[in-house]
């Protein structure tokens, strides 16, 4: 589970952030191994498919009377499996590997210390919003730097608050 920052919850201590970062890096390495394993499986399926095409389908297409009707039917349908194999393997790869990898790739920078410029921008927001200033104070009382993910969370919170104050919902006035 990825550690999430929330303005209403107490900020996590540095050890929790380090543990979450280690877990994200470990999960990223696991996805890399899954990606390699998935590639091997797809190559094995394609190799079996190509072997079947070369040893069964092509000879049947040259002499259709050589084998029973069932095998001939399978041989005639085999070329259409190319599209099916591509679609299924691509969807599985996206679902099992790519989507989680993208989530983890965005999570890794969130656990790094924020730049001084971002912290200064948040400090400016803290002058206007008491909740932001309180969160900053809680982070500094723990004795750790503000994380990039926390600054992003605070900016999103300020943006939602500004929309609420302006009477906007999802960018449109009601």
Spell out the blueprint of helices and strands.
Elements: H1 14-62, H2 69-77, H3 81-110, H4 116-128, H5 130-142, H6 148-166, E1 168-169, E2 172-173
Helix pairs in contact: 1-2, 1-3, 4-5, 4-6
Q: Main attributes?
A:
174 residues, mainly alpha, 2 domains, 2 strands
What can you tell me about this protein's structure?
There is one protein chain. The protein is mainly alpha-helical and 174 residues long. It folds into two domains: 97 residues; 58 residues, no CATH class. Helices cover 76% and strands 2% of the residues. A two-stranded antiparallel sheet has the order 1-2. The mean pLDDT is 86. Keywords: Membrane, Transmembrane, Transmembrane helix.
From the structure provided, what is the oligomeric state, counting identical versus distinct chains?
single chain
What's the number of domains?
2
Q: Output the helix-strand order.
A: HHHHHHEE
Unreliable stretches? none
> For the terminal residues, how far apart are their CA atoms?
37 Å
Structural class: mainly alpha
Task: Please provide the count of β strands.
Answer: 2
Percent strand equals under 5%
Shape descriptor: elongated
Average pLDDT confidence is 86
Number of helices: 6
Biggest pleated sheet: 2 strands, antiparallel
Share of helix among residues? Answer: over 70%
Strand order of the largest sheet: 1-2
Cα radius of gyration in angstroms = 27 Å
Keywords: Membrane, Transmembrane, Transmembrane helix
Transmembrane segments: 38-61, 73-92
């Amino acid at each position: 589970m990825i550690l999430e920052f929330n303005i209403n919850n107490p900020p996590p201590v540095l050890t929790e952030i380090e543990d979450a970062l280690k877990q994200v890096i470990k999960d990223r390495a696991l996805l890399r191994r899954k990606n390699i394993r998935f590639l091997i499986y797809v190559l094995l399926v394609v190799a079996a498919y190509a072997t079947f095409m070369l040893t069964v389908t092509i000879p049947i297409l040259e002499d259709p009377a050589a084998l029973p009707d069932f095998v001939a039917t399978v041989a005639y349908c085999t070329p259409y499996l190319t599209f099916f194999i591509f679609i299924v393997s691509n969807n599985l790869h996206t679902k099992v590997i790519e989507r989680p990898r993208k989530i983890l790739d965005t999570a890794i920078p969130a656990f790094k210390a924020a730049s001084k410029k971002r912290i200064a921008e948040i400090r400016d927001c803290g002058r206007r919003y008491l909740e932001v200033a309180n969160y900053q104070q809680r982070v500094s009382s723990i004795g750790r730097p503000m994380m990039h993910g926390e600054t992003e969370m605070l900016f999103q919170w300020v943006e939602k608050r500004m929309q609420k104050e302006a009477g906007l919902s999802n960018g449109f006035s009601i």
